[in-house]
Amino acid sequence: MAGGGAAAAASALSSPWRALLQRALDANAHLRHSTYFQLATVGAGGRPANRTVVFRSFQEHSDKIQINTDARSNKIAEIRNCPFGEICWYFTDSWEQFRISGSIDAIDGSSADPAKLQGESLVRELSEVKIAVLGTSARCSHYR
């Protein structure tokens, strides 16, 4: 692709909220807590379950927000039982709040290529789950 490469292609395919969220992340990068947000899932008996998680990255060439968690955590069972959730992210310096809802995928280490993992890293990979929050059905409310 001329003039921008893969980054431009990913940007062209991005949801409008991603650029706003990235701008807020950049503007608040000097604050360590700016990478923390709340993830709500559906718990046992249909009750909401909310917790603070840490933003790791956007999955490459997508709008999916990635976090890491222990495979034994309750949120993994909740996501596998009901793969829908919502995040709420507040940036204290810029006074911006993002509420984004959509589907959630739990990507465990068993889906990794074992040939690329050795010894301790395989154990670490299998005990940690990457969670990709949101799919193409995301919606965003941006308050300022």
Automatic annotation (TrEMBL):
<dbReference type="GO" id="GO:0008615">
    <property type="term" value="P:pyridoxine biosynthetic process"/>
</dbReference>
<comment type="pathway">
    <text>Cofactor metabolism; pyridoxal 5'-phosphate salvage; pyridoxal 5'-phosphate from pyridoxine 5'-phosphate: step 1/1.</text>
</comment>
<dbReference type="GO" id="GO:0004733">
    <property type="term" value="F:pyridoxamine phosphate oxidase activity"/>
</dbReference>
<dbReference type="InterPro" id="IPR024624">
    <property type="entry name" value="Pyridox_Oxase_Alr4036_FMN-bd"/>
</dbReference>
<protein>
    <recommendedName>
        <fullName>pyridoxal 5'-phosphate synthase</fullName>
        <ecNumber>1.4.3.5</ecNumber>
    </recommendedName>
</protein>
<dbReference type="InterPro" id="IPR000659">
    <property type="entry name" value="Pyridox_Oxase"/>
</dbReference>
<dbReference type="InterPro" id="IPR012349">
    <property type="entry name" value="Split_barrel_FMN-bd"/>
</dbReference>
<comment type="pathway">
    <text>Cofactor metabolism; pyridoxal 5'-phosphate salvage; pyridoxal 5'-phosphate from pyridoxamine 5'-phosphate: step 1/1.</text>
</comment>
<keyword id="KW-0285">Flavoprotein</keyword>
<dbReference type="Pfam" id="PF12766">
    <property type="entry name" value="Pyridox_oxase_2"/>
</dbReference>
<keyword id="KW-0560">Oxidoreductase</keyword>
<dbReference type="GO" id="GO:0010181">
    <property type="term" value="F:FMN binding"/>
</dbReference>
<keyword id="KW-0288">FMN</keyword>
<feature type="domain" description="Pyridoxamine 5'-phosphate oxidase Alr4036 family FMN-binding">
    <location>
        <begin position="15"/>
        <end position="107"/>
    </location>
</feature>
